[in-house]
Design goal:
51% helix, oxidoreductase, four-stranded antiparallel sheet, alpha+beta, 393 residues, 12 helices
């Protein structure tokens, strides 16, 4: 067994860290307060090709894999972005670049991937619905074949990045859940031209006011007769579940990488404060009540990193990685939350002040326990598939 990162991942780590090092906590707090995309950082990532790592070289990318994307996201989060880094690598590099590279037709790859690599096209992803929640099987957004196009109607919720996206990777039902045999049949994944649909009046969206991760908006999305050309199906009609798992597993792995990087960042902020703060004549970090909880979280972060890398390594090799992706997401999200909570306690009352970044990281870390999949569903998966316990849902 070799636990050394490949040279490609080391180069990614160092390159992204160099960019992250140019932007301090004041910058990220300002982006969050102003509810604006970190455009300056994004432009640098695009200029260096750090966003197109998983796009094949013949289409302008680096020809690498999910492991390199995970390392890039982790490095950006640890370098200062915290939770804000996750969507910068999920929306276009993963939902667009990674998915089209693996499941797009030759024509789709030639059309979309060079534009993504050049920073000329951005994407987002829509699966969650108000009544289905985390139960993807029960989505009701319908795509009906009409000549050389599909006509889509339905509603999605908590869709991040709509305000920036040129194309939406949309999960639909072409066979209703009640009629699908097996249950996973009848999904079709479509590439929707957002601006075209908005101009036609068939797609609208409304941002949802939210507690954190305010560098990207999350919206309610309404689809009312959106026409999508049939040649913009990703994968096969009615067989989109294979595509869907190759979106959801990378999403969980990248979310885990964001949790690892965020956990490291928050630990560093807490430890810096614990070394400097000395209200009783010596640094508070010298006391076991402060030091030991931080040390335990460091151990949790390191364990989460190992599983994150393993899951990405498996995905890159086309091997099953569902359990590993779930475990990585579960442990990394919990480590990031524990780190934020302990950083809050370490800072005492000053954690409540917006002069410090702890409050922002506390808010951003909490949602990671619920998205992209709630930890209860992860535990249910582990209980059933790893422990052989009866299905609970």
């Amino acid at each position: 067994m070799d636990f050394d990162l490949p040279e490609s991942a080391i180069a990614v780590r160092d390159g992204v860290r160099a960019i992250a090092g140019k932007y301090d906590q004041e910058y990220w707090s300002r982006c969050d307060a102003e509810k604006r995309w970190p455009e300056e950082v994004w432009r640098e990532l695009v200029a260096g090709g750090w966003h197109s790592l998983a796009i094949p070289e013949e289409h302008g990318g680096a020809g690498q894999g999910l492991l390199e994307l995970a390392v890039a996201l982790e490095s950006l989060a640890e370098g200062g972005a915290g939770g804000a880094a996750s969507f910068m690598y999920l929306l276009t590099p993963a939902f667009g670049g990674l998915t089209i590279a693996r499941h797009g037709t030759d024509a789709q790859r030639a059309e979309f991937l060079p534009k993504i690599a050049a920073g000329e096209l951005e994407t987002c992803f829509a699966i969650t619905e108000p009544d289905a929640g985390s139960n993807a099987m029960n989505i009701t957004t319908q795509a009906r074949r009409d000549g050389d196009a599909y006509v889509v109607s339905g509603q999605k919720i908590w869709i991040s990045g709509m305000e920036r996206a040129d194309f939406l990777v949309l999960v639909t039902r072409t066979i209703p859940a009640a009629e699908a045999r097996p249950r996973a049949a009848g999904f079709t994944v479509l590439l929707v031209d957002v601006k075209e649909a908005v101009d036609a009046g068939t797609l609208t969206y409304q941002p949802i006011p939210k507690l954190g991760t305010n560098t990207v908006a999350s919206s309610m999305v309404f689809l009312d007769g959106v026409r999508v050309p049939a040649d913009r199906v990703l994968g096969e009609p009615d067989q989109g579940f294979a595509v869907l798992w190759d979106i959801l597993n990378p999403e969980r792995i990248l979310a885990a990488a964001g949790g690892v990087g965020s956990g490291e960042l928050v630990l560093r902020i807490a430890c810096d404060y614990a070394r400097d703060r000395a209200p009783f004549g010596q640094p508070i970090g010298a006391h076991q009540g402060i030091a030991f909880p931080l040390a335990r979280i460091k151990a949790q972060v390191e364990l989460a990193r190992l599983m994150t890398y393993k899951a990405a390594w498996l995905w890159d090799r086309g091997r099953p990685c569902g359990s590993e992706a779930n475990i990585a997401k579960l442990t990394a999200a919990d480590a990031a939350w524990q780190a934020a909570d302990r950083a809050f306690q370490t800072h005492g009352g000053m954690a409540y002040s917006l002069e410090y970044p702890v409050a922002r990281m506390f808010r951003d870390a909490r949602i990671a326990k619920n998205i992209p999949v709630a930890e209860e569903l992860v535990l249910a998966h582990i209980a059933q598939h790893e422990l052989g316990l009866p299905r609970s849902y």
